[in-house]
């Protein structure tokens, strides 16, 4: 018996190569999206795990919000004065939980965290600092160290009041705790989401950072219920 064998024609080979190229073009973006989704999920998990040490610290210090720099400073002995260092009795400041898997910034590795501590920024608003300065200056008998502690304690109390409050201005956003996170990605690291930053909020929830208009809408809905 004779077998009639023939090879691929040039046209058939080009068609096959075209199909492979098309499938590859579809597969690579899909794989990239899967990897990005996995990194986003791990980032949310990190923030969720950081809620417990923050709450534990707060409960051990008169229910005041921890006061630390927005991001750690880089000192001679490594990162200092940031939230990871403040919470070292509750979580290892070198834990990988502090680093978002989507963060490739060398500065984040140097500071030891991918997350910005929002109260560390808000405490420098003029209203807070004016009240802190007036109160601390009245305590003439305090040492320099005592003044620093009094300032930090008061800032923590005022931040608690801030987050518990409601922005009632004409263009207000409603409950501040629904808009201002405690921790959030220090840069846009999760493209493809509505807001490419994740945040940890006062109620322990973890999700994409809330846009101002969304927070206002949620506040209005809550008021109507």
Q: Let me know the average pLDDT.
A: 82
Question: Rg, please?
Answer: 25 Å
Query: What series of H and E elements makes up the topology?
Result: HEEHHEHHHEEEEEH
Biggest sheet, in brief? 4 strands, antiparallel
Specify the overall morphology. elongated
Low-confidence stretches: 215-220
Fraction in helix: 40-55%
Distance between the termini: 85 Å
For the largest beta sheet, what order do the strands appear in spatially? 3-6-7-8
User: β content, as a range?
Assistant: 5-15%
Question: Tally the helices: what do you get?
Answer: 7
Structural class: alpha+beta
How many beta-strand segments? 8
Number of structurally distinct domains: 1
In short:
This protein is α+β, with helices and mostly antiparallel strands and 225 residues long.
Describe the fold and architecture.
The structure is a single chain. With 225 residues, the chain is of the alpha+beta class. The chain has one domain. The chain is 49% helix and 10% strand. Helix 5 packs antiparallel against helix 6. The chain is elongated, with a radius of gyration of 25 Å. About 3% of the residues have low confidence.
Task: From the structure above, extract its key features.
elongated; two-stranded antiparallel sheet; alpha+beta; single chain; 8 strands; 4-stranded antiparallel sheet; 225 residues; 7 helices; 10% strand; 49% helix
Describe the secondary-structure layout.
Blueprint: H1 10-60, E1 73-75, E2 78-80, H2 83-86, H3 106-111, E3 115-117, H4 119-122, H5 126-137, H6 144-164, E4 166-167, E5 174-175, E6 183-185, E7 198-200, E8 206-208, H7 212-224
Helix pairs in contact: 5-6
